């Protein structure tokens, strides 16, 4: 607040660089979005940093509807997005479960010639799965130039959430085959999918590989999945 008061006294409270710094400061300090938005409204000529900072702040504060509206205002104002802006807006689409909005953002990113990095690719995967489009998520994954642990885990969790048990297991196995060691979250997603899909043998193999191949001690959640899977199959003794 003292910095803001000083900026106001020297008539810098509408200068773009100063206001961007103030927006960032307010966002890091917490306390809601009223102050950052007030600062933004004072900017004579907001740039992409100004717009993106507020959009990201709205998303982080659970205000996805406001973030989407703010993004539309930015587009109407003629401001061109950058990669961080696209990623932030995709998070809003995921929260809103708006496939139409997410696809619009994806198309704009393609049309701007954005070079898809891992962060943006992973954000697309998350958005498409949360919006219920496994096919679009698979297309994005297949066209990504590189993957990381987040990418593979997103695929395993995404297919698992949509009841695609065999696809979940396929992705899980492919992840391990490509040299990525699954963590406890990926194991839980795979075991949950096996439990829901009745894939007893696959579930057993994955469960035993936790400690034998990856040195991960099964937790209560993993054991609960196996108890459900084997109980329904009448094979509780198998564990």
Account of the 3D structure:
The structure is a single chain. The chain is mainly α and 239 residues long. Helices cover 74% and strands 0% of the residues. The protein starts with a helix and ends in a 6-residue tail after the last helix. Residues 1-12 have low confidence and may be disordered.
| Derived structural class | mainly alpha
Strand fraction band?
Answer: under 5%
What is the helix fraction of residues, given as a range?
Answer: over 70%
Broad shape? elongated
H and E string? HHHHHHHHHHHHHH
Describe the largest sheet. Answer: none
Termini gap: 60 Å
Number of strands: 0
Poorly predicted regions are 1-12
Radius of gyration over all CA atoms, rounded: 22 Å
Total helices: the number is 14
Mean pLDDT: 90
Write a short abstract of this structure:
This protein has helices spanning 2-9, 16-29, 34-42, 48-60, 64-76, 83-96, 99-111, 118-130, 134-143, 149-161, 165-177, 184-197, 200-214, 220-233.
Q: What's the structural blueprint in terms of helices and strands?
A:
Layout: H1 2-9, H2 16-29, H3 34-42, H4 48-60, H5 64-76, H6 83-96, H7 99-111, H8 118-130, H9 134-143, H10 149-161, H11 165-177, H12 184-197, H13 200-214, H14 220-233
Helix pairs in contact: 2-3, 2-4, 4-5, 4-6, 5-6, 6-7, 6-8, 8-9, 8-10, 9-10, 10-11, 10-12, 11-12, 12-13, 12-14, 13-14
């Amino acid at each position: 607040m003292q910095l803001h008061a000083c900026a106001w006294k020297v008539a810098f409270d509408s200068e773009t660089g100063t206001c961007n710094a103030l927006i960032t400061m307010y966002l890091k300090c917490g306390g809601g979005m009223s102050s950052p938005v007030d600062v933004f409204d004072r900017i004579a000529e907001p740039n992409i940093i100004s717009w993106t900072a507020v959009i990201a702040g709205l998303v982080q504060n659970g205000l996805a509807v406001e973030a989407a509206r703010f993004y539309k205002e930015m587009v109407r104002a003629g401001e061109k997005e950058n990669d961080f802006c696209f990623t932030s807006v995709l998070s809003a689409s995921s929260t809103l479960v708006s496939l139409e909005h997410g696809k619009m953002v994806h198309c704009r990113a393609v049309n701007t010639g954005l070079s898809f990095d891992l962060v943006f690719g992973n954000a697309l995967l998350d958005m498409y799965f949360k919006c219920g489009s496994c096919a679009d998520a698979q297309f994005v994954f297949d066209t990504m130039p590189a993957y990381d642990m987040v990418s593979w885990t997103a695929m395993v969790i995404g297919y698992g959430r949509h009841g695609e048990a065999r696809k979940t297991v396929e992705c899980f196995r492919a992840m391990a085959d490509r040299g990525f060691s699954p963590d406890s979250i990926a194991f839980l997603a795979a075991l949950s999918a096996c439990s829901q899909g009745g894939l007893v043998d696959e579930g057993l193999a994955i469960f035993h590989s936790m400690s034998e191949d990856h040195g991960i001690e099964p937790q209560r959640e993993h054991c609960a999945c196996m108890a459900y899977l084997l109980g329904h199959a009448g094979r509780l003794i198998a564990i």
